[in-house]
Structure formats: structure tokens, C-alpha cells
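Bench notes, bay 3.
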Amino acid sequence: MQNEEKQYDSVPPWKRYLLTITEAANYYHIGEHKLRSIVDENLNSDFVIMNGNRILLKRKQFEEYLDRATCI
């Protein structure tokens, strides 16, 4: 299990398909609270995946959402 975690951590965020809220906050320099509110407003969007109670963001689709946004 630890070996798999180390291998995942070695993949840089700009190459990952999915990002957790914490990873996305660090990568996009947006606060976790703000990201959670964006997710709450866009639960049915194509960039949100719920894995149980864990929120995952599809990186490319979320970047497209940010490109279209005029204000966050």
C-alpha cells in the first residue's frame, strides 16, 4: 500500500486526471472553503466526482470551468 501511495505522490498535479480539494487548493491557489462552495454550486457539473464522501475534481474540466468564469 505504501508503495502505491509513493508512486501516486510522484505524479505531479498537472499530469493527474483527478485532484482532491486539498491538492486543487494548492495547485490553483484557491482556498479549500471556496473550492467546496464551487463544488456545492456545481454538483452536477462534469468536473465533480464524488467517491463516497470524498470530492474529486477532474483537472482539465475544472480548468475549462475556471477559464469560462469571470468571477469565483
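Next record in the batch:
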Amino acid sequence: MKIAVMGYGTVGSGVVEVIEAHSDVIPKRTGGKSLEVAHILDLRDFPGDSHASLFTKDFYDILNDDEVKIVAETMGGVNPAFDFTMKLLQAGKSVVTSNKELVAHKGLELLETAEKNGVNYLFEASVGGGIPIIRPITQCLAANNIEGIAGILNGTTNFILTMMIEKGMSFDEALKLAQDKGYAEKDPTADVQGHDACRKVCILASLAFGKHVYPSQVETEGITNISLEDVSYINSVDGVIKLLGQIKYISEDSIAAFVSPAVVYHGSQLASVHDVFNAVLVRGDAVGDVCFYGPGAGKLPTASAVVADMIDCAKHSDRKKIFGWGAGEEDYVVDYKACIKMPFYVRAKATCTQINSAFSEVKYLSRKGQPSDEVAFITDIMTENELKKRLDGIPVLNIIKVTNY
């Protein structure tokens, strides 16, 4: 079976490598169908590459090749990836992708087009890189009502926080190290501001609860305000800070979804996820908590998930998989600040007397070198709106949610 790859960057070149390295194994997993790379689309030149005869700069070489049945889209971004993918699906070709931004923004339209044309649109690699999470949610956990999901969904931010926690680096020092190691882009905004994790939350929420969730509906906070002072205070109560994407079931007609730093106590499976690794914890009403852990990015881990989707498409070439979600609604994602109760970590320029007059019960924290005019504490369970009211007039230095995962 002939296939094509659009985008020959880190992931795209990995897809070709994985297909070639496993050419003897793939037919055993597709019912005898091999995967043969017929075209590689990229506007760049790759002099000396062994696949020179396969390169094209013309998308229509792929679209008009009737023998190409499956296409891997590893270009990234919304355009022209959306236009190309839509045309391929309309032409009766299945498409698989690692492109989280495209799925988060346009997944509903592409899934509907795939359904209409009797082909598949699959995106296992878009959330956890090499971590299997899409199939487990839609198949293995199908007997459960999902109560919530919490995920460390971005390797760059997890590496930065790990360096702050374990090496005592400042945020700026840890970011520079991440850039030097190639974990962070020259412009790290999408990672450190939480936008990358937000897109993955949208995909997970859409799959778990059946309605499309858009990035604009997910309130997102990054890690740029996390300081070594916060790390030290939270360490004193046997906790760590992680950037978490969280999704909580509210009712048949509503969910809460947000991305923010969170205090995770040791004992949680999420607390031990270090460096660039990712993890997704899913809470089901029957199974309880299950955690999926592994490399959330990288050439071969991500490519392995893309190729697995291509194998799935080859196996289902004569039938459409039941897969996807329905249309979303403007008020489907509720304001979590008004309805989700949790404890909070607070650091402020204040006295214990001021805090005791505002809160009925808090747990005070301490750190080495703590200034006399600085307090840090963990609150009782309350909504964020209630917290803000109680803190009115108090100079707050930072607030971090405390998770129950």
C-alpha cells in the first residue's frame, strides 16, 4: 500500500525511518499490507538524502496519485496543513497527524469530512508523542465514565521545573539550559506560557466527553511566575510544582478545563515525572486512576505513534473506524473559578494576623531565608473566586492550585 509524508522535519523523517526499519514487521500487523513511501512533500531541499527520488514540492503529486491511500501530515501549524488535509480526505485518502494545533482548532471539521468520505483521520501522536493515550481513552476505557484527567503535557516546561526543583536553577537559567539542549525553541512562548499544553487539553477533553473544545475556551497560565521561593516552600510540605492540564466532568452539558501550575504531593504518580517526560492520569468511575507515562516528544517516539496510526488505517482500509466527537457549545466549558473547589498555595507580603483574619484554617509553610514580612500557606478547600475575595487588600506574590491527583 502506497503512502505519502507531508513535512520532512524531525517527525516526518522519523516516520520514513520507522517504516523502513520495520518493513518486515508491518505486514504482519496489517493483514499482509506493506507500507511503501511514494512521495515526501517539503519545500526545502535535502541534498544527499537517500530518498531524493521521492521528494516533491507539489502537493498535487500526492493528491492526484490514486495509489496513495494513506498520508502522514507532520507539517505543523494550521495552514496549509488544514487545506491539504481537507482535500486529501475529500479525495478518499486517510490522513494521520502529529499536529496538535490543527486537531485542536479544526479537528471537528476534519473528522466530519473523514466520516462523510468513508476514510479515517487519526492523531495518536498529537497529545502524548510516543505515549499511547488516544486509543486507551476511546477504546480501553470505553466502559468508564471519565471523571477527570490531569496531564503533564509539555516536556519543555517539565524539564525547566525539574531543574528548578532538583538543581536550584532559576527559571531563566533552566530555560537557557533547555534551549541549549534543544528542548526549547528560540521563542519558547508556546511552551512556557502553556499554549502547547492547552491544545492537548482540547483534544483530550473532546475525546473524553464527546464535544469539541477549542483553545479559546481553556483558561491557560504558564510557568513564568514560578520562583525558587515557591519551589522551596512547597518542598517543605513534600510537594513539587508541575504544569498540569486538567479536565473535570461537571455534568452531561458541562466540563471544566484549564492549564496552570499545580502543587502535586509526593505519592501522586505525577510527582515522579521528571525531565522531558510526560504523563497523563485518567480517573474513571470503574477503573479508578490509571497513568500513561513516557516520552512526550522526540523524533522516533512521535514517529512510532504516527506509523501506528498508519498501520491502523491500513487494517481498516475497507471500513471507517467509529472515532471522534460532536460539535461544541460556547458555554460547554464552564468558568472553573466559580465551581471547582480545591486548596491553594499562596505566597504574600503579609503577617499571620492578616491571614488568620481572612481565613478560618490554613497550613503555614516555611523556607530557609524567609523574610519576616513574607508568609506562605496552603488554604482549605474553596473556589478561586472565594480565594480572591478573601485575599482582597493583601499583597499577593503568587497563587498556585493544589491538585488532588
